[in-house]
Amino acid sequence: MYSSVSVAGSETPVQLPAFLDGFRAIHRAMRRDVARLERVAPGIGSQRQASRLARFYDHFLVSIEHHHEREDAVVWPQLIEREPDFAAESEVLHHDHEVLHEALYAVATALGDLVDGTVADPATLAAATGRLREHLNDHLDREEAAAFHRIARSFTADEYHALEKQFREGLSIAALGFEGPWVLDGLPTEQAKAMIGEVPPPLRVLYYVAFRPRYRQIAAVLEEVS
Asked: What CATH number has the domain bearing residue 72?
């Protein structure tokens, strides 16, 4: 369970409210799977394996790109209204998003070359995933240190939940169907149950009977390639 975050200039970790659990869980999923992508990339030995990894990566990329777009368009502007000094740091984070966009598509291009047989050696993919991991982890460290404690002190739980609804706008059902189980994957059982318990009952049923089984099928390649 997450309970604190380090803040630049402070030696004492800041305790964070439960309403930020979802935000932290998304970041955790990003860190987990960029590390898994880097681990499996050198072992891609066939176009079939590359196709299966590309299928996972397409969903991974959509989730991250949507997350960044909504931060820039929704979260950061509302946070700046409450915490004007965040404006300068939001510019740094926006630049990070531009760098990450290039890194994300470098991986997509390298995977595409393996899928269509243009390239047989996964070395380019391995190098691209390594760069993506470095950029992403550095960015998430900066973002968590700059934004989380400000969100925690500037929003009530109800205000933040309203913000989350705006955050999810633009996600298709297919994207939601991947993102839900992707974020919950590997979380402590009680935390995962609490988070899935907050979604409307119809979506909860879809999660168990359709979304989670499909996600496990798509993500299986991350465990099968070595």
From this structure: 1.20.120.520
